[in-house]
Amino acid sequence: MIDYRSKEIKIILVLLILTSIFFWKVVINPGKMIYPAYDMADNVEPMKLLQYQSFQKYGTLPLWNPYETGGSTFVGSILSAMYYPTNLLYFFINPDYLLGYIFALDIFLAGMFMYLLCKSIKLDNYSSILSAVVYMFSGIFISRMNIGHPQVVDIFSLMPLLFLFFIKAFERNNWKYAALAGIVLGFQILAGYPQYAIYSAYALAAYFLYDIFVGKKISSKRFARQTVLFGIVILIAFIVSAVQLLPSFELSKYAIHAGSSMSYEFITSDANSYALTPRYIVSFIFPDFFGFRLDHTYWATEQFEEVTAYIGILPLILSLLAVMFERNKYTLF
């Protein structure tokens, strides 16, 4: 047992070293990161700075944002993500120094959680390490850091941990693991991009159905048991995130989409903006098919960062081989 734990710790340290190498400029020069003039500069950093200054100067939570138009609720804005665990640090540390470290922490956690998930479903060390490295440095993380979407990076860094607890809850028929999965899903909601948390819930529902109808022999008793466990996950997620959902729900009644004069076509077109339409599937294989933003060759209609999920050619090939030589029920899912 000691040797096993020692090996696990060494592998996790390797992931930490890889993260440190990737973020070496942040490690050496905290507070000197320069972000593009997109959401980070326009939205995220000012919100974190208001959170920091409000607590440091007045010792209170920033309930109101006086700097946006004629003033608006801060606590009601789900984008503030004030209650996400790592964002609590912004009450005490200036975001100019902290933002880069939070990105680095998220990338490390993404790799560590993916490694632990792979080990829990009986993959060997090499496969688990490869999966962790591919995931933590995939396009979904790197592109979102570039444009300044820490909320999305937060959510995807927790995805492997969510499935780790969810699978254990089903395999062991254990409500405690279901509660832990619910806590993680609640954290994803608190991260500030609820649509991605909803996607996580959809993914859990897909695994729930897969496990019921494919994993083992179907029985009414087993179906009822798994349904209760899934219900616990959703219930705990709402309880954990209620501190943000309730004020955000109150704010939603005054949002522009709530106006009765809005046409259905306008609402749906706005809601579907930046959607990952089928034509962007080609970017999973050819990431530069639509060009790149950095060299000003990008020609697609949606923002590059919104439709990029490239993980590499080798991982795609290995994924196909894994499906062809399926060893257990997890492989196909």
What topology does this entry show?
Blueprint: H1 2-22, H2 24-28, H3 39-58, E1 64-65, E2 72-73, H4 95-120, H5 125-136, H6 139-147, H7 150-172, H8 175-190, H9 194-215, H10 220-252, H11 264-271, H12 313-324, H13 329-332
Antiparallel strand pairs: 1-2
Characterization of the model:
There is one protein chain. With 333 residues, the protein is mainly α. 63% of the residues lie in helices and 1% in strands. It has helices spanning 2-22, 24-28, 39-58, 95-120, 125-136, 139-147, 150-172, 175-190, 194-215, 220-252, 264-271, 313-324, 329-332, and strands at 64-65, 72-73. A two-stranded antiparallel sheet has the order 1-2. It starts with a helix and ends with a helix. The model has no long low-confidence stretch (mean pLDDT 84).
Give a short summary of the structure:
This protein is mostly helical. Helix content is 63%, strand content 1%. The chain contains 13 helices and 2 strands; from the N terminus they run αααββαααααααααα.
